[in-house]
Write a structure and sequence with these properties.
Distance between the termini: 28 Å
Order of helices and strands: EHEHEEEEHE
Shape: globular
């Protein structure tokens, strides 16, 4: 189960780190959620994104910063979420919910730190 939530509030509540890059524009996520993407800026740059709650409690930020490759979105999870199996499961939930094939995951963090998807 997944529902949209306020991205700006999520980003103010905790620190998020990137966990995967998906070859999909933010507009696809916003359209599928029937919401408008949030636009804002932070210490890094201007961004567009959406906020989600998975299973009612797992906060997810999907963001594209200006300057990132076009038609890509980065999945951010809370900094304290460290279990690689849980992270992979959450990325799987997101890709399944949005019908994103495995080949559209261009990068996903692994237990060793970094992993380029094939």
């Amino acid at each position: 189960m997944m529902r949209p939530t306020n991205l700006e509030e999520l980003l103010q509540e905790r620190e998020f780190i990137p966990q995967a890059i998906l070859l999909r524009p933010i507009s696809d996520f916003a359209r599928r959620l029937d919401i408008q993407a949030t636009e804002g800026d932070d210490d890094l740059d201007y961004y567009q994104g959406v906020g989600l709650l998975l299973e009612g409690t797992i906060p997810v930020a999907i963001i594209c910063y200006r300057g990132h490759p076009p038609n890509t979105s980065t999945v951010y999870l809370p900094f304290e979420m460290r279990d690689p199996k849980l992270i992979s499961a959450i990325i799987g939930m997101i890709t399944n919910a949005f019908d994103i094939p495995a080949e559209a995951v261009s990068w996903q963090r692994s237990s060793s730190g970094e992993h380029l998807a094939s």
